[in-house]
Predict the structure.
Amino acid sequence: MTKTILLAVSGSISAYKAADITSQLGKLGYKVHVLMTEAATTFITPLTLQVLSKNPVHLDVMEEKIADRINHIDLGKEADLFILAPASANTIAQLANGMANNMVTSTALALPSGIPKLFAPAMNTKMYDHPATQANIERLKSYGYREIEPKSAVLACGDVGRGALADLNIILKTIEETLCEN
């Protein structure tokens, strides 16, 4: 049976890497549904991810195209795994504090309890290391999320340090290992 992955994309310069994640997951035989924050759409178009996933991209929690379906609820019921990649500091903070103001956060909060949840932070080193972000990461972990830690690299802003999105092979390996465990 084909496993279904919800790939949530938040507003980070690394959002363009969601195209590779989506493409590779499809090649591995997974069904991928992409959720995006509005900020993510400034870095990569929904159409790109729709073409690669072969599924509609979900952007607006209030848009219900099928009358008997509530997307942010039903997507979670159909999922075998939820991954937020890239995970911006803002979206991590929203999830850690129970906010549900967009498609990504609403769907994440409505996930059934047994669904494995991953997040791959991507942000400036100072943002990642900030005590508020670290506290939010710890809170997400207490909710059952597993972090795919960022790598150290030259960041988009030119700073050097931890905060770059983990390499694609690490993200894919973590997804596959997590699905095998569950």
About this structure: DSSP finds eight helices and seven strands in the chain. Residues 4-181 form a domain with the Rossmann fold fold (CATH 3.40.50.1950).
